[in-house]
Write a structure and sequence with these properties.
This protein is mostly helical and 270 residues long. The chain has helices at 2-28, 51-57, 60-91, 95-109, 112-125, 132-157, 161-169, 174-185, 187-202, 206-211, 220-224, 235-269. The protein is 76% helix and 0% strand.
């Protein structure tokens, strides 16, 4: 009985949480006049598909491409730097290792809105604002790196240390044991964590809004805000844009949801 009650509560909370997504797609299929109809229609009586029109009129492809470039750069840097750091922390012992892990977690706690001003000043001094997408990639990677290290460290701790010791006895160097033995065994955890970093980076807004001034280089999240102005708002276009932007994220999550949940659960248990 308790199990069914918990299941019903889980379904209820999931429905409440996902209702805005449903309402976004339902509104995207309505006309401008029916959006404010009272009582509101849960589903439009005459659905109107305007995806192609909105996609062409607002050059959405350019901004999605910019988001893809930024998210790919962030994920690549995070994987490159974070994998080695996570492995080192997984093998380290003692007070210094605990302090290092604590500092990594502190980096995860700091919000981007707090860091954007000092980063803007620092990037301006070194001339990095002339390359705004690179500035966004570096700033966001510093944020996602902490998340990546914490999850990947849990993955590396699940690999038996005896395998590394056996590789060293067989004549491998520490670097060889890492690339030939440890890394293949931790591959799934690294890939799932990288997917989570990519999804998080694809929706980055604060640094993109602050560092990228050129309209052609803006990401999809920043350009999405241009649909709203003080005097008017294109709600149909906004919902269609949001639906197009969210679709690849939902598809990736649905395809990998089992692996993502498994990866997060194993990391939490550790």
């Amino acid at each position: 009985m308790k199990r069914y009650v918990l299941l019903a509560l889980a379904i209820l909370f999931a429905a409440i949480y996902l209702f805005p997504v449903y309402w976004m797609y339902a509104t995207a299929l309505k006309t401008s006049g029916s959006i404010f109809k009272y009582p509101p229609e849960l589903w439009p009586s005459q659905p109107l598909f305007q995806v192609s029109r909105v996609f062409a009129e607002h050059d959405i492809g350019r901004y999605l491409w910019n988001s893809l470039l930024v998210a790919t750069g962030i994920t690549a840097i995070t994987m490159l730097l974070g994998t080695g750091a996570a492995y080192a922390l997984a093998n380290a012992r003692g007070a210094k290792a605990n302090v290092a892990l604590f500092l990594v977690i502190v980096l995860q706690v700091l919000p981007p809105s707090l860091m954007v001003t000092p980063l803007f000043v620092a990037f301006n001094h070194v001339g990095l604002l002339d390359y705004p997408r690179t500035a966004v990639v570096l700033a966001t990677a510093a944020k996602t790196l902490a998340f990546y290290i914490v999850l990947c460290r849990a993955t590396f701790t699940q690999v038996p240390r005896e395998l590394k010791d056996a590789a060293l006895v067989d004549g491998n160097s520490h670097l060889g044991a890492f690339f030939l033995i440890i890394l293949p065994l931790a591959r799934n955890g690294i890939l799932i964590t990288s997917v989570l970093v990519f999804l998080q980076s694809f929706g980055e807004y604060v640094y993109s809004r602050s560092f990228i001034a050129t309209r052609e280089l803006q990401t999809a999240t920043v350009n999405l805000a241009t649909y709203l102005s003080a005097n008017s708002a294109d709600w149909v276009g906004l919902m269609n844009y949001a639906g197009i932007y969210v679709a690849p994220i939902l598809i990736v999550f649905i395809l990998l949801q089992r692996q993502i949940v498994t990866g997060l659960t194993s990391g939490a248990l550790k």
